[in-house]
Amino acid sequence: MTPRPFLQLSAIALGLWLGTVRGAAANGTEQGSVLIPAGFYEPLIRSPKDLAKKPVAAFWLDEQPITNGQFLAFVRAHPRWQRSHISRLFADSSYLEHWTSDLNPGTQAPLNVPVVQISWFAARAYARWVGRRLPTTAEWELAAAAGYTRPDGKNDEVLQHDLYAWLARPVPPIQSTVTTARRNLHGARGLHGFVWEWVDDFNTALVTGESRADSGLERDRFCGAGSLGAKDSSDYAAFMRQALRASLQANNTTTSLGFRCAQDFSPLDPYSPR
Question: Residue 266 class from Cβ within 10 Å (0-12 exposed, 13-18 middle, 19+ buried)?
Fold first, then answer.
């Protein structure tokens, strides 16, 4: 007998809810995901030919950044991504240098805090290992635009306070766990106030000036881009993200740069992500 429409919709709704709270179990790792609704992304720096907002389809995003424990499972399964084995083509000399050894993160990298000093190549390889991908700039910015209790985070005073307090603090020697961080409207934790995060198309960022000339990769590289043509010249945090992305190369690592994964959403597959 064909299920009634109400029961079909109820099953889909239940599947969506289970997907958001149970997350994905892949290759020995667990990561909860949240559904980011479709929306529009407006680039920070716009050219005269690119003034319109860009549509972004709904997608799944990891609830929090990938941790040292999760990345440890990855390098155990794939030794070529271990610190002593990785090619300099895929990661610079600072790659996981705060870990005690290849398979021991140690006291400087607790298992439950975001992994940092990870290259784009390594982040992308991990995402593929768990059957996902890195979010695009448009996806990440759309997810991060939400406040704690409202869709427009720019007008969320508590979020803005937390964000700029973090920007004013030096990078800590040991990262903090984000499991107790306040969720944003979509349910994501730690998009602001913990670590910077890789995006898949980081190298399409535009800044003014020659940011690649500086060999340092820490806060002295997070210079603000020129505000000409910016959608909001007062959005200092967005300029910081834009400048960082434009300053990076795919094999670079820093002490405050981690990542989280994304996955396409399909209404025909309510139990996604898997």
Answer: exposed
Cα–Cα distance between 99 and 223 in angstroms, integer? 28
- Name the residue with tokens 């004013």: 168
- What pLDDT does residue 142 have? 95
Residue with token string 């405050």 = 256
Alpha-carbon distance of 203 to 205, in angstroms, equals 5
DSSP state of 93: T
| Structural domains in the chain plus CATH codes | 7-264 (3.90.1580)
> How does pLDDT run across 61-120, given as a tens digit for each residue?
999 999 999 999 999 999 999 999 999 999 999 999 999 999 999 999 999 999 999 999
CB 251 within 8 A of CB 90: yes
- In the 8-state DSSP scheme, what is residue 260? -
Q: Which two tokens stand for residue 17?
A: 């809810």
β-strands 33-36, 29-31 pairing: unpaired
- How much is the pTM? 0.79
How many other C-beta atoms are found inside a 10 Å radius of the C-beta of residue 26?
Answer: 16
